[in-house]
Amino acid sequence: MKGICLLIITLLLSLYTRCQETGEKILMTIGHSPVTLSEFERIYKKNNTGNNVLDKKPVDEYLELFINFKLKVIEAERLGLDTLPEFKKELKGYRSQLAKPYLTDREFSEELIKEAYNRLKTEVNVSHILIKLPKHPSPEDTLRVYNKAIKIRDRILLGESFEAIARGSSDDPSAKSNGGNLGYITAFRMIYPFESAAYNLEVGKISMPVRTRYGYHILKVNNKRESQGKIKVAHIMIAVPRGSKPEFFKKAEEKIYDIYTKLLQGENFTELAGNYSEDPGSAKKGGELEWFGTGRMVPEFESAAFALERNGEFSKPFKTAFGWHIIKRLDRKELESFAQLKPELSRRIARDERSALSKTSLINKLKAEYNFKLDSFRLKDFYSTVEHSQTSTGFDIRRANSLYQPLFSFANQVYNQNDFFNFIQKFVTSKEYHSVKKFVDQLFNNFTGEKILDYENSQLEKKYPEFRYLMKEYHDGILLFELTDKMVWSKAVSDTVGLLDFYEENKNNYMWGKRVEATIYTCHNDSRTKELAKMLKNRRKKGYTETYLLNHFNTGSKEKYLSIENGVFAKGDRGIIDSIDWEKGITPVFEYNGKPTIVIISRVIKPQPKTLEEARGIITSDYQNSLDKQWIRELREKYKVNISKELLSKIK
User: Fold this and answer.
1) Which of 426, 458, 490 lies at the terminal end of a domain, its last residue?
2) Helix (H) or strand (E) holding 441
3) CA distance 288 to 267
4) With helix as H, strand as E and coil as C, how does 566-631 read?
5) Based on the domain organization, do 323 and 387 belong to the same domain?
6) Is residue 637 part of a domain?
7) Mean pLDDT by 10 residues, the chain (652 residues)
8) Structure pTM?
């Protein structure tokens, strides 16, 4: 016992000392666990300040809720729920998602978002000539293709037609038909290096060769204009399969003009689209298409759509590669504000190749922050090792395993040549890399970037208090859910004996009010109402059943004359029942909602408790609340709570 007491005292002293070292004030202790003033203040203010808080609570009231929450978390930790593999896996998954914004350069990402929005304001009409590169080009391949692009550019500058050269020299197959003209583009319509070159080039100018993953491009900007915004249209299409003979286009033209004539005569566009359009996806919706902007449709379709000036206006028939169309304008809107588009732009950038730029920017900043140092001489060992390891089938760099000298370091982390060898050997099976130095440098950049981001990831809780707090909330929240489910929610559902006992003790809390058992006879006109009333009065004597009455009154009629509804009704269940006196017997014929009606009340039921099945949902919920309160009482007896009233009084 003495040893246990000493251990507890030592633990409390260490916790107290740690709080003192960080300048934290202890608001309370729950059992042996201290809770700092800052932790409670942060959670209280997070949940009880701002205009959007629906249920603001006084400090004292919120403190009780907070203590109940912490008691459950502490109990879950005592039971070791935070050591279970399932818990660790779930928390790791949440952490991975929460860490993503911290593992990119957020300032740089913000600039990319602003850049994308500013580009969306302007649309660029651009032409290009593509000279392809092999998938893994050698330096000789790269130089050859670059020089070819330069020669093509020189020919254009000397006066040759850009369009003619594009048709004859571009590796983009579409150039043969469009002369290299891609039409108007906007942000995200092309890969990022191409997009940037187009937006940075003046109208009429010819770019230097622009490198992308496809090869080298020579760009010519033909025009720039303000954003057209987005438009919503419906269309009628008469399709013509690709490669069809001219007579097929002629037949489609005749069909579309017949439809156009019907429109001019006032027939409904939606109905015509449903009946005649050969675009199955939109025809069933009256031809309606999703909102679209620049670059989403073929140029002819886009031009015809944006040329319409008013909602409801429709175009003349026009032809595209897909057939003949008529378009009706449904609506149009300008480019949304930056605030409105920012979440979408952020998501698109995260999926776009420009996200790698933000990651690279962060890596460079972290290298400076963590004093990254590289021994360039020892990196050169890999150049020669890999170069001399080339075979006809790839690389054989097993002898690089002997390289073990320190290679680079940062933040007291040291990585040697062998660490890099273990990384690089996974990638040296390919024989398509022609430049050993470029190959090794690329892998080295990947390796150092990976290691420095891994280190940064491990430091997030230390560097960013808001991340640490958020992880604590997720940690505690998962534990709270798991233990509460076990002790309260699932227990209330599975504990049939306990639920039944709770019901028996509290069944007078679940009462039916006064009710009636009644049958409602509704006539859909008054032609046979007297006959029905007479038969209902004699129903017992004559043995008229409901089935007999329905067959008698509804036979030979397309529409039913009589409807019958049985039920037990409480106040508020049915307006017709509320409108009559609740006395046993049959009512005279009266009109309800314009229809002759007779109601028979067969029984008036006095107030009585609902059965367990009739109120199982609310009874189960109340039983859960009862279990929760009982559990909290037990936890408060188990873990003593001490609160600093002085510190509590300072919270506002």
Assistant:
1) 458
2) helix 436-458
3) 17
4) EEEEECCCCHHHHCCCCCCEECCCEEECCEEEEEEEEEEECCEECCCCCCHHHHHHHHHHHHHHHH
5) no
6) no
7) 38 40 79 90 78 62 93 95 96 94 91 96 96 86 94 96 96 94 93 96 96 96 95 95 86 94 94 93 93 90 94 95 94 94 92 89 96 90 71 56 84 91 72 68 92 96 93 94 94 92 95 95 90 93 92 78 94 94 94 94 95 94 95 95 90 78
8) 0.69
